[in-house]
Amino acid sequence: LKEVEVVTGEEEESNVLHATAKLYLFDSDNQTWIEKGQGLCRLNDMTASESDSFQSRLIMRTQGSLRVILNTPIWCGMTVERASPKSVRISAIVEEEGVKVFLIMSNPKDSENLLRAIEWRVQRLKAAEESQPKGEERGSEKRKADSTDYEAVGKKSR
Asked: What's the mean pLDDT when you consider all of the chain?
């Protein structure tokens, strides 16, 4: 048999922290926690050529099959809190469903390390957002139209 190269999508990232953990998703309809799986939880930093941009993501894969059960960016509005000595509760972005609440259970030492690492990244992103000038907050904001824009539209429609 030939050796097959496995491409995970994490090749351009540096792993900051990894721990074996169990992942639970909060079901708001039934007010219960649903177990998503057990596996390796990894906190990765994206290597960017620009020194001022900083991005991280939290990814978790199940043991054995390596199925992705959590893949969320770390963002400035993310909620991170200790639920118990062995668990960390986070808000995470799920692709089609929006923001969901997850519980990551691990041993107390790994749980503490994960909590501190995510909190530090969230604080750093908040500080970067606050230091950004107001006009540059969103690149997709519409600019104000001046009178020459209206004249150009009027000429095209005639």
From this structure: 82
Range of the domain at 94: 13-130
**Residue 118 included in any domain:** yes
Q: Cβ(39)–Cβ(47) under 8 Å?
A: no
- The domain total for the chain is 1
Give the pLDDT of residue 143: 37
For residue 21, give the nearest of 9, 38, 6, 8 by alpha carbon.
38
What pLDDT does 136 receive?
52
Residue 66 lies in a domain: yes
pLDDT per position as a tens digit, 32-56: 999 999 999 999 988 665 555 678 9
| pTM of the predicted protein model | 0.76
List of residues 6+ apart from 24 with CB closer than 8 A: 33, 34, 35, 36, 102, 103, 104, 105
| Integer Cα distance of 18 and 103 in angstroms | 16
CATH number of residue 19's parent domain: 2.30.29.30
Q: How high is the pLDDT of residue 146? A: 42
